UniProtKB/TrEMBL annotation:
Residues 144-228 form the MnmC-like methyltransferase domain. Pfam families: Methyltransf_30. This is MnmC-like methyltransferase domain-containing protein. It comes from Persicobacter psychrovividus. PANTHER family: MNMC-LIKE METHYLTRANSFERASE DOMAIN-CONTAINING PROTEIN, SLL0983 PROTEIN. InterPro entries: MnmC-like_methylTransf, SAM-dependent_MTases_sf, tRNA_MNMC2.
Length: 229
């Protein structure tokens, strides 16, 4: 992937924006609905499922691929709704420019216009430092590639694995990188991803995780959640 890439803002079927990379012929989210997909994969089958089985006042999340910041904003909403402390670590190799991020319609589409300021703060705050954006939500952005990053020593309850599809960026799904990411999980922690390829499931199983195929968001048959015993 080139550092300077052409990016188009598109509208998905639920009204929320996503981004299209013509050079890669790839979008950041499902065309069936960006918010709908992220809520299903990372909130319902990430945060909700984990919180239904565990009690913790603080939940550390590691996201692979910060991108538009949609998952961070949905986690922010969840933290406020559940009055739980979420610390959101997120990795991004190619941060978006402000001229793109200021146009994204997520707060309005979520019916949370008052989230506009924290959403912009998520994008504008500096990398490599923890920023407390509210009583319930802190963010730590890591500007690096998955291949080269050394993660801060944090025990994560959840991983949101949101790389581009294996058909477009196969290297992100390589076994050593999956191991590097799942090593960040505590026992009882879980990784969720929209991808349900057989190779991914076999690789996660080979790392000792318990792999579940769950119904996918609209337009996708299945997704994967992998838990560490
Ligand atoms: C599917 S998109 C991001 C989705 C994002 N969570 C969102 O809601 O917008 C994948 C992201 O991974 C980032 N990325 C691509 N290659 C990467 C790499 N080698 N290391 C870390 N991030 C990478 C892309 O720039 C992009 O933001």
């Amino acid at each position: 992937m080139a550092e300077e890439k052409k990016i188009e803002i598109i509208q998905t079927e639920d009204g929320s924006h996503s981004l299209f990379l013509p050079d890669m012929d790839e979008t950041y989210h499902s065309s069936h609905g960006a918010i709908q997909e992220s809520r299903h994969v990372f909130i319902k089958h990430g945060l909700d499922d984990w919180a239904a089985q565990h009690h913790a006042d603080t939940i550390n999340i590691l996201e692979i691929g910060f991108g538009t910041g949609l998952n961070a904003l949905l986690a922010y909403e969840w933290a406020h709704q559940h009055k739980k402390n979420v610390v959101f670590y997120t990795l991004e190799a190619y941060p978006l420019k402000e001229e793109i991020t200021t146009q994204l319609n997520y707060p309005a589409q979520m019916g949370q216009e008052d989230f506009d300021a924290p959403f912009q703060q998520m994008h504008q705050c500096s990398w490599g430092t923890l920023h407390q954006l509210s009583p319930y939500f802190s963010i730590y952005k890591i500007h690096d590639k998955l291949e080269t990053v050394s993660f801060p020593a944090v025990n994560c309850q959840l991983v949101f694995f949101d790389a581009f599809a294996p058909s477009k960026q196969e290297e992100m799904w390589a076994l050593p990188l999956l191991e590097k990411v799942t090593d960040q999980l505590v026992n009882g922690g879980a990784l969720s991803t929209y991808c349900a390829k057989g190779q991914l499931k076999r690789d996660l199983k080979s790392l000792g995780l318990t792999v579940e195929s769950l119904p996918g968001p609209p337009g996708k048959f299945q997704m994967v959640r992998a838990s560490k015993a």
